Each structure stands twice: as structure tokens, then as C-alpha cells.
Amino acid sequence: MKALPMEVTLVMSNLPSGYHRDMQLLKEILMPAFDEILDCLDITDFMLEHIQVKPNLLDDPKYDLLFSVERVNELVLQGVPFREAYRIIGKEIAEHTYSPSRDLHHTHEGSIGNLGNDLISQSMEQALAGFGAAKAQTAIEGLLG
């Protein structure tokens, strides 16, 4: 962890009750930090507005090994002990004989095919409603209108 500058340490340990030189020193450190945080938020906003999901990304052969866990789980469900299943698939991978099955049938919440996006959207709408954003937006429109 990076150590705090001496000025910040002094200000934090000996906060004055009024406006003193300590506050000027702290301001010199905090103001550029706020600017940098705002820049990071702008970058994040831009990135999220332009994010694109590539369909069928996992069809590329370079992602074949992602499905090895599925194959291990399949063997375990057939009664093969986990360590043995892990060794079998590891050997297939090492010998380049592993062939992934992309035919997945997951049913648990959060899995491929059952992401629960509708539940996430519903939760987000409820959380946003708790902030009173609609009321603030109406007030802003009233001020600007």
C-alpha cells in the first residue's frame, strides 16, 4: 500500500476547526484527484455506451479449453471420481485429443441460458426508484423549463 504524503498525514491527525494552511495543503492534493476521478467516470461512461457483445464468440476454437470443466463435471455425474475425471480430461488436453462439447444445458440461475437478466433489471429499477431520480429530474426540468 502506498504511503500517504506527509501533508495528508498531518492534516488527518490534527484537523483544525477553522481555515488554516493545513486545509490549503490538503486542497492541493484533493482537487487534482477529483479531476482525475471525473475523467475516469467520463471514460467509463463512454465505454459502457459503446460496449458490444459479440455473438457466438465462444465458437472460436481458441476457447475450447473453457469447456473442459463441463466435460469433467459430465464424467463426475456419470460416477467417475472428480480427481480421476480431472486426470482424464487433463490427459486428453495434453495429448491434443480433447474435443469440447458446446451442447450445454444449464438450468441454475446465472448460468448460460438462464442469466436472470430480467431479475437483474427488476432489481436495478427498484434500487433506482429508491433514489428519487424521477423527482430530481422533474425538479431540474422545472428549473430549466
Backbone CA Rg: 27 Å
How many domain units? 3
What's the number of extended β-strand segments? 0
How much of the residues is beta strand, in percent? under 5%
Principal-axis shape equals elongated
Assembly classification: single chain
Helix content: 55-70%
Please give the largest β-sheet: none
Q: Kindly, what is the distance between the CA atoms of the first and last residues, rounded to a whole number of angstroms?
A: 49 Å
Q: Would you identify the regions where 5 or more consecutive residues have pLDDT less than 50?
A: none
Tally of alpha and pi helices: 6
* Mean pLDDT across every amino acid position: 83
Q: SS-based structural class?
A: mainly alpha
Q: List the secondary-structure elements in sequence, H or E.
A: HHHHHH
What's the topology here?
Elements: H1 6-13, H2 21-49, H3 68-77, H4 82-94, H5 117-131, H6 133-144
Helix pairs in contact: 1-2, 3-4
Structure description:
The chain has 145 residues and is mainly α. It has helices spanning 6-13, 21-49, 68-77, 82-94, 117-131, 133-144. It folds into three domains: 1-51; 57-94, no CATH class; 113-145. The chain is built from six helices and no strands. The longest helix is centred in the first third of the chain and has 29 residues, at 21-49.
Short description:
The chain is mainly α and 145 residues long. 60% of the residues lie in helices and 0% in strands. The protein has six helices and no strands.
List keywords for this structure.
0% strand, 6 helices, mainly alpha, 145 residues
